[in-house]
Amino acid sequence: MKYQKALATIGILSLAAFAFGTVSATTNAAAKSSQSVAKKTSKRLTYGNITNNNLNRLATIRQLTRTQLAETHKLSGKQVQRLVYLPLPRHLTATNFTLDSQHLTIHLTKNQYGVKNVAIPLNKLTGIILNRYMPKKYDFTPVKTPKKVVALTFDDGPDPTLTPRLLKTLKKYNVPATFFEVGTSVMRYPSISREVLKSGNQIGNHSWSHPQLTNLSSTSALHQIALTDAAIYKATKTIPYYIRPPYGAVNARIGNLYDRPIVRWSVDSRDWAYLNTAKTVSHVLATTTNGSIILMHDIHATSVAAVPQIIRSLKKRGYTFVTLEQLNQKPLLGNLQYFGRNDYRGF
């Protein structure tokens, strides 16, 4: 009962209200409808045309549509939670969009939001839509970075004491990081999540209660991410673009549910096992190479204490700390796994 009341305070639905089968059928119907439209209007552009027949780019467009709908219509927490079931095209032959000099407008089928069109600004689609379909000012060019780069990531927060302490360290050294947050903690400490973003960092989705997603049904696994989306949106008015499955446990069934990049890592600090600052520092310094994504946790005091020395030492070695997109030098695409620079894989 306490759990249900807590969810209600941030406008989140129970799992019983999360009708996976019903909405999946709607999504399939929408896909078939899109296909039939494509056949009738074969001269029109298709998603295949504008994405170079890339399903990962199409997945990214689906997620950007959800995010833009939430932003434009100022959705509630409950409404954001349901966005994962918004009927959107899954076939490259679909043509339910209009592309002009400012927006990619997605024409929606009937939906619970009563929204007919979602207009995504083209500046959010650089690197997603091919350059030849974009105005020159939105042309994609690879992000230029220093020769030696690494990205810091922190899991399992926010923590009311340790996360603010870590944020001060990152600010002192002018280092960005991505925080993969657990929904139950965001619900308890929303102001900390707001401070993470305010400090110039990014927030990713690390599930609601930290289960091994591969052990769950697709309905429950989707619910874990949707609940956390709603909590983070309630706290920050943003929907996280990146997902990191707890324990790094992901397979094709789970990874293709979300239409978002799955961020893994190439350096496991093992801070969770050592619970020792010196050992954590030593392990990170011994295993970090150019383009690494470093996994740490902002819920252990020993981990947070290790960060200053890790930053100083890697900077002395010529490394620059960058965001995940800077590390990749281009947008991260939906339904791909990212382990480090130039190391991404499908399912």
Automatic annotation (TrEMBL):
Gene3D superfamilies assigned: Glycoside hydrolase/deacetylase (3.20.20.370)
Signal peptide stretch: 1-19
Domain of life: Bacteria
Domain NodB homology, first and last residues per copy: 148-322
GO MF term list: hydrolase activity, acting on carbon-nitrogen (but not peptide) bonds; metal ion binding
Xref: PROSITE patterns: NODB (PS51677)
GO CC annotations on file: membrane
Keywords per UniProt: Hydrolase, Metal-binding, Signal
Record protein name field: Polysaccharide deacetylase
